[in-house]
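Lab channel / #folding
Pinned by the channel admin:
"Please post every new chain as: sequence first, then the structure tokens as a reply. Keep commentary short and put observations after the output so the thread stays searchable."

First post following the new format, from NK:
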Amino acid sequence: MRLRNIPHADSVVQSHDAVVMDAKGKRGVWKQVFGNDRPLRIEIGMGKGRFLLQTAAEHPEINYIGMERYSSVLLRALERYDTEEFRDLENVRFLCMDASELEEVFAPGETERIYLNFSDPWPKARHARRRLTSSGFLEKYARVLAPGGELEFKTDNRELFDFSLGQVEGADGWTMKAYTRDLHHDEEMNAGNVMTEYEEKFSAKGNPIYKMTAVRN
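Reply from TO:
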């Protein structure tokens, strides 16, 4: 998702206390950033931050990092974070960066879970490598996830979901844990589900939501 350009977005993002600007300098020492030894989870492409912030509020025993490429989008997440509901959360940090830089920011095994929610489907075949569930990205995730770490992926795009299943099944170092083609009618996989803005919008129209969970061996 990319919003229209917002002139002051860069300055707000760069000056916000919850945004880590020197992220590459934190590689391997994220526990020091948070000041504790709690597990670390990452949402890549967090959009306006609804999923990240609600999940972090429900699980104060876990540290969360939200990655968003565009400052105009990250700005909206920061505005939500600054509300009375979320501004006291101490287990959340934000990064304005591209997912391709993941290994420059996180050391091997430094995180226990990665979330991908309603990622850009990049529908043209020549752009397949840009999909966040492509084999190239799966290799990156496998290197920063600890053994037994998980990748959770949700989408409303059937073609992207089928592609993603195939990528995981064909990738070394991954095991498919579970998947569903109708999340909101799957009692087991929907337990504890936190909806994103997109998820609420699409499901309200009657569209099924697809979800898979894969485990890094």
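NK: The beta strands are 40-44, 63-68, 92-96, 111-117, 145-155, 174-180, 210-216.
TO: also worth noting, The first helix runs from residue 9 to 15.
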